[in-house]
Design brief:
mainly alpha; 18 helices; 74% helix
Length: 419
């Protein structure tokens, strides 16, 4: 069976899974789903198949490479030789030319500063508002959930909720579900740049995936929790957050501080989660060794077996499904940072061992915050903005994470149909 046809089957399967998990199967949001799929296909075809789109795609890679180079200039100023990839390569070889903690910190801080500056200038708000307007008019989603969905493309899960803070207390259950799902099916700009800079991964695909995550998250969220109440916002909504920076310099400084805190958080999570995986593998492998098992299985292999069918459904060749399935499972149990890092390391250390189509589709399927830790982040972060909705957030947490996973697999399958 052609791989593109399998991806079509995957589209149907993801939508069917969302419908089966719906709390009201009789109220299927046909318009939202149809237009959500149209928007995804239209954007993906434009970027991946048209001459203008391909130039933008290639330009994104150039821009990301340059931004990473500029970030390294800043890193060299602070860390000296440890921030100089050329010097490290000469001293330790190709494998020692990349100090992960330094490159991640430098990239996140630079992107965070630039994002803060664009927000101060009002550029980011205009882009988000335009994207929200398109989804609102075509998919017939409410103003608050459309604005939150578009904001999630650029901001973090809780920062996007801050944009619609005045509406949170009166948002419907379905709108809360849509807010949480789009938070799960997208990633923030700061970490997006880090993933795009990883060896073997494409900046163009990462950026495309992040945009596709908004309509995909909205449509899956609305399938799993259809709207049955009148919305307070309807087709209107506007940015509530005010500029806190005094001028452009202050905006850059604020962004740098926020980026520094984010990078420390990222490194802390990576150390903890990678160590936890090693601990779990030790607990799993030890009794197998005691029983004389020659080739004991690990938690990565278990995740691979469980997620291989989903990898196949998005269009990954079956020979690569155990590997890609394990990486997809890691994202759910741990986070997407660990998964992207493992994918990049495998591509780097095993050149040609995995099909490029598999790497591309995995890059899309991983592009979202859909993991167990994000449930706690959303309950804590959004709950602090609207304490009266904390119960609803806790009740919808697991459901929204599943919706986020399905949304990521859905837009990965969309790309699988096209490439």
């Amino acid at each position: 069976m052609p791989l593109q046809l399998i991806s079509v089957l995957g589209l149907v399967a993801m939508l069917a899974c969302a419908w089966l998990l719906s709390n009201n199967r009789k109220r299927f949001p046909w318009r939202t789903v149809i237009w959500g799929m149209v928007l995804q296909f239209a954007f993906a075809i434009f970027i991946l198949k048209t001459p203008i789109g391909l130039r933008l795609f290639q330009g994104a890679q150039v821009v990301m490479d340059q931004l990473n180079a500029y970030a390294y200039d800043g890193a060299k100023m602070v860390f000296g030789p440890l921030g100089d990839a050329a010097m490290l390569r000469g001293a330790f070889g190709a494998s020692g030319a990349y100090v992960f903690a330094i490159s991640v910190t430098a990239t996140i801080i630079l992107i965070s500063s630039l994002s803060s500056l664009l927000y101060y200038w009002g550029v980011l708000q205009k882009v988000v508002a335009a994207m929200a307007w398109v989804m609102m008019k075509t998919m017939r989603t409410s103003g608050s959930e459309s604005l939150a969905g578009a904001s999630n493309i650029f901001l973090g899960q809780t920062e996007a909720a801050l944009v619609i803070k005045p509406y949170l207390p009166k948002m419907t259950q379905s709108e809360i579900m849509a807010l949480m799902t789009t938070g799960m099916s997208t990633i923030a700009t700061g970490v997006m740049a880090v993933y795009a800079g990883m060896e073997g991964l494409s900046a163009g695909h990462i950026l495309t995936a992040s945009v596709l995550g908004a309509p995909a998250g909205l449509l899956v969220g609305k399938i799993m929790f259809p709207e049955t109440e009148p919305s307070e916002t309807g087709e209107r909504c506007h940015f509530d957050t005010k500029k806190t920076a005094t001028n452009s310099i202050d905006a850059l400084c604020t962004g740098a501080s926020e980026g520094a805190m984010l990078s420390i958080n990222v490194m802390g999570m990576l150390i903890a989660f990678v160590a936890i995986v090693a601990l779990l593998n030790g607990l799993i492998v030890w009794p197998q060794h005691a029983l004389g098992v020659a080739a004991p299985f690990t938690i990565q292999q278990m995740l691979g077996w469980a997620n291989a069918p989903f990898a196949w459904l998005i269009g990954v060749p079956w020979s690569d499904c155990p590997l890609i399935g394990g990486i997809l499972g890691e994202r759910i149990v741990l986070n997407e940072f660990v998964s992207y890092l493992d994918l990049s390391n495998f591509v780097k250390t095993h050149p040609g061992a995995v099909d490029q189509r598999s790497v591309t589709l995995a890059s899309y399927a991983l592009c979202g915050f859909a993991n167990f830790s994000s449930i706690a982040i959303q309950i804590g972060g959004i709950g602090a903005l609207a304490p009266e909705r904390r119960h609803d957030l806790a009740r919808l947490g697991l459901k929204s994470m599943i919706a986020g996973v399905l949304a990521c697999y859905l837009f990965a399958a969309v790309v699988g149909v096209i490439i």
